[in-house]
Amino acid sequence: MRNPYFFGRPPGMYGPSPLTVEEKFIRTGSNTGNLLFISALHKAVLHSGEQNYERFDVGEVREKHDGIVVPAANWFNYYSDWGGLADRIEATKLPCVIVGLGAQSHSTTTFPNPKPGTLRLVKVISERSESISVRGAYSAAALNHHGIKNVTITGCPSLLWHLKPIHVEKHARKVAAAAIGTTRSDLYEKVFDPQPSFRASVLLGRWALANDCFYVAQSELFDMKVAAGEQNIAAASEHQEFLQRVYGADGFQPVHDYLKRRLKAFFNVEAWLDFLQNLDFVVSTRLHGVIASLLAGVPAVLSVHDTRTREMAQHIKIPYLEAADLVELLSSGSLDIEGIYEGADLDAFNKNQPIYHAAFSAFFAKNAVEVVLSKENASVS
Question: Which of 63, 164, 201, 277 could join 374 in a cystine, given CB atoms 3.0 to 4.6 angstroms apart?
């Protein structure tokens, strides 16, 4: 492939825009973290740069492109249905590769039973490619369980963003400026569940407010709207009450003031990394929030809370902390940000970077996808 069609969202939004925060948010797929792996693939894979993101027209794709690249996330689950995409890919009769597919569950002892449409999508792409790129060993095992054998463990393509291996230094200094990220969406009552996978996000957000720490939002739309001054007060009472509960505040005003002062949301990766480069450390339950920090050359620790985050942390050697351990620290009031910073092992991550890049280069070569990845083992400046 020298000019594939990229399924999905555009790699970012730039410059002045008449769009509201909500409109921009929807264009990311309702999670700004999607921009990390989408934009990385757009940078790494050779293509013309011109395509229609608004629709997947089978005839147009077949006429203008010589293949299809599907940037994927945690699609191999029990609730998504990708049958429509399977039909369109099959109708093009073009080769197709899927990159960074993840299986998601809260337990490693069982595999998700995907909807027929999703299973069909993976089987269709399996037939049109030499291999499927998955995020880790659990995802590979999940696909094997469902009879899909041509699988390559690569990790998420987000770390290809600089087109070369990166090296993150941990400086011996006080953590003066830090940011957090949590996993939450609007009016999602499940976030109050006592399970560590949910509790960690609530407690980490409350810690950030209490310590006036930066908060990088990815799926918290109403928080973003408050920070941007775009909330509709007439329709906001339910959301305000929800945020008071999330942040454990006596009223909405302290939450409002904190979000206006400290919450950040980004709609292109360049702006995201520019902001992070001024920080010392990031602690997040969001995989792509941590990857963005590492791409910016800033140490970070991921709170792992499901099979998807755990397998990625283990495969590409991201420093991580179990959600249950983070909850214990936050609940007891003994969270030591300096201690977590000191304990973050970046040596393993740095040593793994050339291996990670070599695996992706081999995967693309096997699937005849032209890329512009450098083999240079260089650092981020």
Answer: 164
Query: Could you report the per-residue pLDDT of 252-305, keeping only the tens digit for each?
Result: 999 999 999 999 999 999 999 999 999 999 999 999 999 999 999 999 999 998
End-to-end CA distance of the chain: 31
Q: Which residues pair with 101 in a beta bridge?
A: 134
The three state secondary structure string of 38-63 is HHHHHHHECCCCCCCCCCCCHHHHHH
Supply 98's token pair.
């899927």
Query: What pTM was computed for the model?
Result: 0.94
Q: Which residues pair with 297 in a beta bridge?
A: none
Residue 284 in 3-state DSSP? strand
* Structural domains of the chain in order of their starting residue, each with its CATH number: 5-164+353-366 (no CATH), 178-350 (3.40.50)
- What stretches of the chain show up as alpha helix (H) in DSSP? 21-27, 34-44, 58-64, 83-92, 116-127, 137-145, 196-210, 221-228, 237-247, 252-262, 269-276, 287-295, 307-316, 323-331, 337-343, 346-366
